[in-house]
Amino acid sequence: MSLNLFKLDGRIALVTGSGQGIGLAMAEGLAAAGAHVVLNGRDKAKLEAAQGAIAAAGHKVSIAPFDVTDQKAVEAGVAAIEAEIGPIDILINNAGTQKRGAFVDFPAEDWHFLVATNLHSVFYVTQAVAKRMAPRNRGKIVSIGSVMSKLGRPTIVPYTATKGAVALMTQGLAAELGKHNIQVNAIGPGYIVTELNKALIADETFSNWVKSRTPVGRWGETKELIGAAIFLSSEASDYVSGHLLMVDGGLTSVV
Ligand code: GCO
Ligand code: CA
């Protein structure tokens, strides 16, 4: 049995929100596994810096700067990738953000921003990509959910709502796209050291709570999400669909 199951050579992978953090780590990992990665984000300079690093490592990488919350920009961006680079085999819906605050005071505009960034984006990008994958009868769609796809905690109700939606959207898409040999799954990161979590890491009480609440007793690193991303992007997962794969150090499996 060869490990070619996990090779992504010859595949094109679009990773949204991949200028930094989890998205960039996954893009680097997919590139190392052989994929031609297409980096996406709104900050072109950040994408160019990331592109430089991945190219310097000897991997194939392009950039596609468009705003995933703008349906017209998404449609144009995806069409351009397919015309200029080639058919997208793998889509990683990673773009997302976080805003924290008491629910009763949570500004409606922040709610709308989180829904647009974390959920509308998945609708726009997945639709633009899946309608092109379907006639090819092959594709991998991986969305980034969260431990909050299954659990709640105070101050992040809007974020939690969007991540719960991503998990069930994954199941719905798996049901509908399976006939086109498109596998649709999600990854649920636990508490990972990222820019979005900077304030939490700096809060000693919260950080100690994460360590005690997580069986492996520590925060995760962005690179620890790469294995799940390669698995769900490769033929190793051709019979896996509709699944939310938690990468959370065991957090969601214990009280
Ligand atoms: C929080 C954090 C969490 C996790 C994120 C990763 O405020 O509790 O941002 O939401 O870090 O969900 O999946
Ligand atoms: Ca499920």
From TrEMBL:
Transmembrane segments: none
Residues spanning the signal sequence: none
Family: Belongs to the short-chain dehydrogenases/reductases (SDR) family.
This protein's UniProt keywords: Oxidoreductase
Pfam family membership, one: adh_short_C2
SUPFAM superfamilies: NAD(P)-binding Rossmann-fold domains (SSF51735)
Record protein name field: SDR family oxidoreductase
Organism of this sequence: Bosea rubneri
InterPro entries reported in the protein's UniProt record: NAD(P)-bd_dom_sf, Sc_DH/Rdtase_CS, SDR_fam
Gene3D superfamilies xref list: NAD(P)-binding Rossmann-like Domain (3.40.50.720)
